Automatic annotation (TrEMBL):
The chain crosses the membrane at residues 12-33, 39-56. This is Polyprenyl synthetase. It comes from Methanolobus vulcani. Keywords: Membrane, Transmembrane, Transmembrane helix. It comes from the Archaea. The keyword Transmembrane applies.
Length: 213
């Protein structure tokens, strides 16, 4: 029996074109939602962009578009999808901050279970976030890596969280955490894994959204 290579080739091309079209539609809808702050077909966008994450970034690079656009869309669409549930939760609320927000001269020790313990020294913005979080019934964790998030989720069972990270890290971690709790993400203003910055007012605004209900 001969293998129908010609037919297989046509089927492959058809599948490739179909995926490309669907992915392009998801990117366009997601980009529109992101730019206009008007979320359209969020579940479709999230499903397609996570399923074809690598190809979506490839398409962006082909058209000279920054490939972090994919991550930005994923984060902002998920923020919009989960916002109403996030506002309703009054207890078990946490903020995950990356350790790279710490000042280079930070003397805080790293607890093996909960991460760095801020001393409120004022050298970086973490202290301001910690103070605001305490006033708004949020627990802050300054984490060295994703493994700490898993430990904290397992030990403390938070119901909702605000995550701070660069867009690629947020897109990945929000996808991983969303089955366990309601998530919101705030992107770093300056990333690079060292001496990074975040918009403190934006983090506080996220906390205050819970008081709007």
């Amino acid at each position: 029996m001969q293998i129908p290579y010609e037919l297989l080739g046509k089927v492959f091309i058809l599948i490739f074109v179909t995926v490309l079209v669907v992915l392009s539609i998801a990117l366009l809808v997601g980009a529109y939602s992101f730019k206009k702050h008007k979320i359209l077909f969020p579940n479709f966008v999230l499903f397609i962009l996570y399923l074809f994450y690598g190809p979506a970034k490839w398409i962006c690079r082909v058209f000279s578009i920054k490939d972090t656009l994919v991550d930005e869309i994923l984060v902002e669409v998920r923020n919009a999808v989960m916002l109403d549930k996030f506002k309703e939760i009054k207890n078990g609320r946490v903020v995950f901050l990356p350790q790279c927000l710490r000042h280079p001269n930070c003397k805080a020790r790293c607890d093996p279970l909960i991460g760095y313990e801020c001393k409120l020294c004022g050298l970086c913005d973490i202290g301001a976030i910690c103070k605001a979080a305490k006033e708004r019934n949020f627990e802050v964790y300054i984490i060295p890596g994703g493994s700490f998030v898993k430990k904290i989720i397992k030990a403390h069972r938070p119901e909702s969280c605000i995550g701070v990270a660069c867009y690629p890290e947020l897109a990945e971690s929000m996808q991983g955490a969303s089955p366990f709790m309601v998530v919101q993400g705030v992107s770093l203003l300056r990333d690079g894994c060292y001496d990074t910055q975040v918009d403190v007012d934006e983090v506080i605004r996220k906390m205050e959204e819970c008081d709007d209900v």
